[in-house]
Amino acid sequence: MTLNIAVLVSGRGSNLQSIIDNIENGYIPDAAIKVVVSDKGDAYALERANDQGIDAVFIDPSAFGGKKGYEEEVLRTLEKYDTQLVLLAGYMRIIGKDVIEAYKNRMMNIHPALLPSFMGLHAQKQAFDYGVKVAGCTVHFVDEGMDTGPIILQRCVPVLEGDTEDTLADRILEQEHKIYPEAVKLFAEDRLKVDGRIVSIL
Ligand code: GRF
Description:
Number of helices: 6
Oligomer: single chain
Order of helices and strands: EHEHEHEHEHEEHEE
Bound molecules: 5-O-phosphono-beta-D-ribofuranosylamine
Mean pLDDT: 98
Distance between the termini: 20 Å
């Protein structure tokens, strides 16, 4: 059976692209991205979806009378596409309670830091400014906190002499494009078991 995936985006969509590519090349088995949803009409990720013949939907947050109405529309869209797994890929909003409950342990996010360090915005800059010697990225299930859900995979990269915030962010992004497809593959193969905060890989 094919795993129906929805991807929520707000921007350039390079992580979306890495999932698309890894479904196409067979690394992620039996899965299809059914819809890409953006809260920004001009997100480049929507173009990437269109280029692949994937339904690309812009949901305008200001058009539904507030956060609750907007979230209801998101949920309706996810249900319309019979979504079984939701991927946040550069989606710049906090997900509301109803969507989280509907997709508990079936919604993932990628964060460009080694959680629980450097939650929130500009994680690479936070890490760089802090002076860490090791940085990285995390794929986790989404819970009600910001970047607090059970951790599925992490990958670290060194911070090198002469790095800038941008060179570090690029090094992290390269690994994001590997571990996100890896986490989705594990989910598609039913190899992730969640017990409280602990995610075991079977
Ligand atoms: C990535 O760094 C991701 O970790 C963070 O937002 C960025 C999105 O980039 N959540 P892209 O839109 O996938 O290129």
